[in-house]
Amino acid sequence: MAQVFRSTRVLTASGLRAATLVVEGERIVSVGGWDEVPAGSGLASGLTDFGDAVVLPGLVDSHVHINEPGRTEWEGFETATRAAAAGGVTMLVDMPLNCVPETIDVEALEAKRAAAQGKTWVDWAAWGGVIRGNAQELKALAGAGIPGLKCFLIHSGIDGFKWVGEADLRLALAELRGTGLPLLAHAEFAGPVEAATAELDRMGADWRSYGTYLRSRPDAAEVEAIGLLVRLAEEFQTPVHIVHLASAEALPMLEGAKQRGVPITVETCVQYLWFAAEEIPDGATEFKCAPPIRGRENREALWAGLEDGLIDLVATDHSPCPPEMKLREEGLWNRAWGGIASLGLALPVMNTALGKRGFALDEAMGRLGAWMAAGPAKLAGFEEQKGTLTPGADADFVVFDPEAAWTVKESDLHFRHKLSPYLGADLRGRVKETWLRGERIFSAGEWAEKPHGRELARR
Ligand SMILES: [Zn+2]
Q1: 389, 316, 426, 290: which is closest to 50 by C-alpha?
Q2: Tens of pLDDT, residues 97-117
């Protein structure tokens, strides 16, 4: 039996409008006008009317550290995907590090698949990893179904995930060329960071001060690394994706590259669009991430880049750790673990930000759908299946009340450790229900009986 859903505000391919979604099994089969309810699907046989609630495609978060297997005490499949479902996210793409083993060969990928069995509330995929010395593993990883590969151009914080230089990047791009899979890069160069840090230490800088941390990771580290990545993407004609762009100083170079047709895409994260360095208290290491949250002017320039299409998508880089690793008592930015926990909050945070910036609701929802559903789905190669309410796509959607006002409390955080810089934030917009492949997985604070998420492999 088909299921039929309708609302006066559905984000369709032609924008936010009154529409009806017809779903057969796990997929959308048609999107029609509000009163185009197929015969035989009266209230008794499966019409769900969401009234005036906004219906958006299920969000896709292409940058999440799930950390399982091996560091499940930091975060795991059960808790991460539960938080995702509550936040209207129906697909996560897991980063290849902070788990043990790191996802740098097929054996590790299989260990991850085994660890995820039966625990995921939403669908997921796993990025593979490029480290110094694993070039011979990359073809097999690609063949095993990963949607792309991630690397670091600076120490990753994890000794087992060795950062790469230009020679390794060339080997990886040669392996990826022609496959269509992207190379994702943490774009900071070590040189400027090491030089700035040494100078700060020589001056006896106070490492409790956020300004010290910010100065230790200068814009130049991002700009120089992105320069190399643009050059290589152009030379190899192979897609390169800049994860978590924090420095707006790189935008003119990226604009030039895109105009020349260089296959390069760019992501920024919710924290860079919401917070600003001027507002971060000293010692508040729950705000620590790398690259760092920069100043207000930079934030405005990132918004401009996003609105102009220079930045393709917004992800969370949800990267939690046990709270004690944040060293909240000493508050030393150079010693605390870097990574911000936020999974499940991205939709209301971005909705609030767009509202404050004066976006009308239809424009705001269209932008959210492009940046947080269609964009990340495309990066991972699942654009026909995920992140869109169109015939043939999975019946993944969020029922969202964009006007509801609320304040983030610990009980609203559904990931493992309840430490987040968003605690206390006043937000607008609340997820009422989340549907995954035609099944309601979250509704009014309750999850479905059992998790039914599955891995999506790219073949
Ligand atoms: Zn990350």
Answers
A1: 389
A2: 999 999 999 999 999 999 999
